[in-house]
Amino acid sequence: QGCPQIIPVNEILVPVGVVQPITLQAKNLPQPQSGQKNYECIFNIQGRTQRVPAVRFNSTSVQCTNTSYWYDGDESGDLPVDFSVVWDGDFIIDKPTSMKALLYKCSAQRKSCGLCLKAEARFECGWCLSEKKCLLRQHCASPDLNWMHLSRRNIYCSNPRIAKIQPLTGPKEGGTRITIVGENLGLHFRDIANGVRVTGVRCTPISSEYISAEKIVCEMERSLLSNPIPGPVELCVGDCSEDYRTQSEHVYTFVSPSFNRVHPEKGPASGGTRITISGKHLDAGSSVAVTVGKGQCHFVRRTVREIVCVTSVSTGGPGIAAIVVNVDRANVANPTVMYLYSEDPKIDKIEPAWSVFNGSTAVTVTGSQLLTIQEPKVRAKYDGIETTNTCQVVNDTAMLCWAPRIYYSKRNPPIEGERADEFGFILDNVQDLLVLNHTVFRYYPNPIFEPFGPLGVMELKPGSPIILKGRNLIPAAPGNAKLNYTVLIGEKPCLLTVSETQLLCDSPNLTGKQRVTILVGGLDYSPGMLHIYSDSALTLPAIICICVGGVVLLIAIITVLIAYKRKTRDADRTLKRLQMQMDNLESRVALECKEAFAELQTDIHELTNNMDGVKIPFLEYKTYAMRVLFPGIEDHPVLKELDAPANVEKALRLFGQLLNNKVFLLTFIHTLEAQRSFSMRDRGNVASLAMVALQGRMEYATVVLKQLLSDLIEKNLENKNHPKLLLRRTESVAEKMLTNWFTFLLYRFLKECAGEPLFMLFCAIKQQMEKGPIDAITGEARYSLSEDKLIRQQIDYKMLTLNCVCPESENGTEIPVKVLNCDTVTQVKDKLLDVVYKGIPYSQRPKAEDMDLEWHQGRIARIILQDEDVTTKIEYDWKRLNSLAHYQVTDGSVVALVPKQISAYNIANSFTFTRSLSRYESLLRTSSSPDSLRSRAPMITPDQETGTKLWHLVKNHDHTDHKEGDRGSKMVSEIYLTRLLATKGTLQKFVDDLFETVFSTAHRGSALPLAIKYMFDFLDEQADRRQIQDPDVRHTWKSNCLPLRFWVNVIKNPQFVFDIHKNSITDACLSVVAQTFMDSCSTSEHRLGKDSPSNKLLYAKDIPNFKTWVERYYRDISKMAAISDQDMDAYLVEQSRLHANEFNTLSALSELYFYINKYREEILLALDRDAYCRRHKLRQKLEQVINLMLSSS
């Protein structure tokens, strides 16, 4: 309500060429201060900008000063013109978008007096007699005498003129409506109501069709003369004096229409026959109607010599009917010309009563009265789709039709054929034959032919027969009718022999390459090219040489075969043995994949059912934003109240005001980026702090972000970098700000739409990984998407079901939990906690290290299980973590989670393990980083005191103590890569769901977030401005902008969105999914080979499909209606309001001030160099902030 704005009151009419002010009503208009520019009105006229000084009278009124306006051309009498009011150079005062000024010219499109005086009264246009033009009063000399306006009474425009009359002929009986077009044809209907005569006969004007000054429609009276002569149209306007009377140049003629012939002379009683009535003057008058018998003949067209119409149903059945032509009020008949309604045609027989699905086979139809039909057609309807085909009448009892096709979409069509839902004939308007109930017309599968091999080429000698193989070549139809095949070799047909599975074609006398074409019904199929070799005659010596050479070669081949047979006999035995081993291995792999897929579907189905009532543990907005903006920093200063002296608070508020100045903020950021010591980490920190500080003004932050991105694009092009590199790496503040901008604006989209499939993918990965063994030390797993985290050997394990006593239940409720006997105690505790505290956020439930696992043996005996205790096995210098198998825990055992007891026993047993645990826990935390994925297993450093190294399922593969004999039941390690495929197959649905949700503009009923459409349009606009037309560049910009900067980060780090715990194996799998996501957004083709990374090979077949989703997603977004800046600003203001108090702005400003202090001299110098900063004294304002901060310190 307090914003300055223009208020629409009255319409703003601006006559062209008149010097006048324009006064506008407004409210809250600010008073320009010293140094600020005054108000201006800016008009955009036909792409040309006209700036006019304006005067502010008070806060509610502003006036554009005296100026004249002009627009080119006389094509339009008025032109709406958009305008705006600005102050201080570039601050636009709000006004409704529909509020425009209307420029108008009286003379445009008003060349005559009548057109001028019928102009809208608001324009105040009048006819200037002296200049014979439409002008404003002030532009006409002696207006009291020369200026005509509708405000005067009883005025008429002189010199009426008739330009055209239509029609030029009509019957003397009258009733013809004559249309008169011209100029100055009266201003009111009363002016011409009695003033029209045609060849001396009165013509009565019709008021409803009168157009002032331009058109008169009148109806002719009857001519009383027996032979009236042609004459002009005469018109009087008003008093009918010399200056107000005119007549047409064209003459009107009275005629007597007649007809003497009709063709055809008969047709079916059901009608629908197009007849032509021939005669004289049949185009006369303004209207025509034809009746045949008692029914109307529907008019089609007419000329001077004929009328064409379509007969309707005969009400009296078959018989002779009279023809009457009504031309206006004249009734024209001829008793010698009659039309015969004949019996409707009948269909007696259809032969053959079958066709193929594609139709177009010949069908002979026998019946009666067929010659009366003009355009016969045959129709069929199947599965809701109607098709037709043409017929040709042979005689009155026979016609030849081509069967219509039907669309059969099911697989494996029945050999016995399919009956159409409806089958009949379209015979003009005959309804009884549209559907024939007695027909048994059937459709059989189309003939299908095999191509000439994979290359589509058949080699043949001249004269050899051509065999074309196929199926369905002879439909299983009754009778002797067969399909009529034509086979063309090049352009020449060949003689055919047809069987059920092949066509035998006698080859014509041709050589070279010839295309083979098979024609049957409506099918046109080519199985390939025929290569016919010409015969070449050989001489007798050549034949003898060839025979001798063949014998010698045959003897040599037999000798080699005998030697080869002996040599390869043993090799065959070895090969068979290896083949059996490979078959067994393949069976094991296939069985493993099948079982894994079936198990996961069952588990995921149970997981989905279990999650129906569980709320997805979304993080609150503040925590989510902090984890993305400041990863790894849990307790950031912006979350706390700033404890600082009053001077510091005052300085920071002044600093905040400076940041709200766009030029200052841009200068500040560009200056920092120009410093060599300003690191990548500093850039990300400044971008995050700036976005936090501007959280309350997101619309301003968006303007700054767009300018920074525009500058970055310009810099990229100036440095002649490839445009596709833009936004790929976080090398600027703008790129990190863009990530943060999407982070703020897509939170709601994550909660309402994309969060669910992401959470389901995380749960599916976690559950699939935990189904098999996971090494607690290396993080490797039996089920994995990452080759680096795959256990490459056979681990024997067994599934156990433990009954866990719920720690918080009073009655000792037992919950069944599935674990593996190879799990360590800590892994078991984690699985128990996942089930017991299902649906509770990770941060709100106990941690495994704070609980002990207690094994109940009987009613009294209790054993505390630990990863390391006195029973831990040590072999050489390797110490193996305890598992359930180590303790011999059996299926169905009862366990309990109890708070960790501080006792001497626990301290003694856990002291050594605590050091080891801290070592490999830090190792696992490190392994979640991308760099650690490059090595398959981390090095295990020995304990400094005992010299032992911990291991769980697999020892470090690179260790020197590893012996070949230790491989035990291992296969070749690469064989286990098939587990990647098994895991990928089981998780495919969840990956597809996530990608489909992200790359779709219709999100389960939710609209596309405005931020995505707005930023993509901005990038397209930047590309247009710099004339970048390459679609790959635009695609890459959008991919680097949203998927790379936001979605990849979220997919790799779901803990940024949910209150969950992500272990190292889950992190490795999510990294593979994220890499696939990135590859799907790329425009470059990935050439894969045997040495390509496994994660790229894993999704090689899926990525092309994902790419089509991305392209469709970008294309759909570009087709959406653009979002206006006003709508986007309103949305951003609402987002600012929702999250205004999430962060402490003063703390963010305090953190930002660190960079002011560090680069003080450089920033002050940059402010000095900028003209805008000097004019607004921004250096002095920053120095004031610095002095206040220094005084407090």
Automatic annotation (TrEMBL):
Record's GO cellular component terms: plasma membrane; semaphorin receptor complex
Subcellular location, record wording: Cell membrane
UniProt cross-references to Gene3D superfamilies, sorted A to Z: GTPase Activation - p120gap, domain 1, Immunoglobulins, Phosphatidylinositol 3-kinase Catalytic Subunit, Chain A, domain 1
GO molecular function per UniProt: semaphorin receptor activity
Keyword Chloroplast in record: no
Record bears the keyword Signal: yes
Domain called IPT/TIG: residue spans: 159-255, 256-342, 344-444, 446-541
Keywords: Cell membrane, Coiled coil, Disulfide bond, Glycoprotein, Membrane, Repeat, Signal, Transmembrane, Transmembrane helix
UniProt xrefs under SUPFAM superfamilies: E set domains (SSF81296), GTPase activation domain, GAP (SSF48350), Plexin repeat (SSF103575)
Gene Ontology BP annotations: axon extension; motor neuron axon guidance; regulation of axonogenesis; regulation of cell migration; regulation of developmental growth; regulation of extent of cell growth; tube development
Pfam families, alphabetized: Plexin_cytopl (PF08337), Plexin_RBD (PF20170), PSI (PF01437), TIG (PF01833), TIG_2 (PF18020)
Family to which the UniProt record says this protein belongs: Belongs to the plexin family.
Protein name: Plexin A3
Organism per entry: Latimeria chalumnae
